Amino acid sequence: xxxxxxxxxxxxxxxxxxxxxxxxxxxxxxxxxxxxxxxxxxxxxxxxxxxxxxxxxxxxxxxxxxxxxxxxxxxxxxxxxxxxxxxxxxxxxxxxxxxxxxxxxxxxxxxxxxxxxxxxxxxxxxxxxxxxxxxxxxxxxxxxxxxxxxxxxxxxxxxxxxxxxxxxxxxxxxxxxxxxxxxxxxxxxxxxxxxxxxxxxxxxxxxxxxxxxxxxxxxxxxxxxxxxxxxxxxxxxxxxxxxxxxxxxxxxxxxxxxxxxxxxxxxxxxxxxxxxxxxxxxxxxxxxxxxxxxxxxxxxxxxxxxxxxxxxxxxxxxxxxxxxxxxxxxxxxxxxxxxxxxxxxxxxxxxxxxxxxxxxxxxxxxxxxxxxxxxxxxxxxxxxxxxxxxxxxxxxxxxxxxxxxxxxxxxxxxxxxxxxxxxxxxxxxxxxxxxxxxxxxxxxxxxxxxxxxxxxxxxxxxxxxxxxxxxxxxxxxxxxxxxxxxxxxxxxxxxxxxxxxxxxxxxxxxxxxxxxxxxxxxxxxxxxxxxxxxxxxxxxxxxxxxxxxxxxxxxxxxxxxxxxxxxxxxxxxxxxxxxxxxxxxxxxxxxxxxxxxxxxxxxxxxxxxxxxxxxxxxxxxxxxxxxxxxxxxxxxxxxxxxxxxx
Length: 646
What we know:
The protein has helices at residues 2-5, 20-24, 34-40, 46-62, 65-80, 89-138, 141-147, 149-191, 193-214, 217-242, 244-249, 258-290, 293-304, 309-325, 328-357, 389-392, 431-438, 461-467, 482-487, 495-504, 508-512, 531-545, 561-575, 610-616, 619-632; strands at residues 378-385, 408-415, 420-424, 446-451, 454-455, 468-472, 549-553, 579-583, 595-600, 603-608. The protein is of the alpha/beta class.
């Protein structure tokens, strides 16, 4: 069984911190804080993050030096008042240079902190995008499809870039934000504790307002749902745009496209709730902080009443200093406000990333235990498979005569090396599932799929893909030259080999007719290909790869007669000497197959050669009769009638 032959992927090295997938799957004994996880994405570059935070802290301390210099200047001025002629100007100039040094140090050190932080952040963005991409390649294909391209795009762009922005800006600011209050408290109480208490009362009032907002669990949940709704709206928008021809054909509107309209409404309603929350919380916080002098002024009036002489001078010095210094509290604490907001947002983005990295990958064998087949026959041994997780539990106990929702139900097939198996049947019978299980896009629930006697679960993914070429009904071409599109199958192939593969795939003619021939970039300047032309480029890839097993999944289903003829010629070259599994829609393509398997309701109900199955007068014979009758349909006096064929 596969459980004895395979194991999960190796855990990350000790240098790499637990990934979100480890956390989501419970592989760590204690889940780290969101800040530790964000820093962990930098890997070996985390020292740059710590250095940036240390520099930012030092920069924050430097920002208060000018206030100390101003206090010393005011102290000297008040000390000689009103006899300013005795003022020590050299000492005053020294304090001026002290203030300038504080400003220069604040700006210069902060820029150095940002440089370190950005270096670490860009590396973390690269590492995280690479980690997500590699993880997407390891999860079941169906899970990938259920996520949707729009949602994956938002996670790769918005969520990962939010992590990068947090590392580059918010973390250094966080260090400064938590350093500034300490410096502020020291300065507030070092000169006059009474003014200090008044200023602290302002800070307490502001944070009481902030705490009331951030302790609201409902708004935290809305923030997370807000991001989910963004993803759902993006997926629905992509689907709507891609389906625009159908929408226009039937005169539909965006309003009638329920999934899109519902997603937009849900996004709008939640966005308004979140926006109104911040609109009410932020002004309250900033109004208190920006008017901190209103807390100090009454205290100063009370304390200054009745003072004269030296006592009044001392009081005036402290009072002037506090009136100048207290407004600086606003800048420091506003940073803390935004840091708190960023922490909520980044937590929501981490949960989005976790939803991807938390999907269990298909288990792969350890490198030393991976097996490589020495021959290339394909075998399905009593295979059961369901797309419904609820049915998987009973897969090994199910019997072939029981009813259920299995896509494949106790299917056994053998394809000797160098022969062709054609799989036919009605839509939804399980034909494409056969192709998916051979390529291990999914794992079987019971039984085994083997290549050369080796369970595909005991092979490394690279070795498995090296065994086969896949040609699907839906073709994806990348936005690069057609030459590079074909050469993706074998990156070290020469230009002559690529052109020869295109000739064999019947694609050379239309490619040379394009503006730049093989160097024409697909999708640029309006250059697109028909479905049949794109299919032939896909076949050219498979021919260039020259692998021993070929899997064709309804590759001619939507081709016009001319393109189908050319594709069939290309298939002859591709299939020569190979083990071929052909999922067929048009029965004319399976006549020459070494064996044909008819799949119905997930089971193989008939198997044999074309002539044998026609003679048996079973399901295949009836399918063939209907297919032949459909070919004879026409319009006009000479058209055959539509009398049903038994």
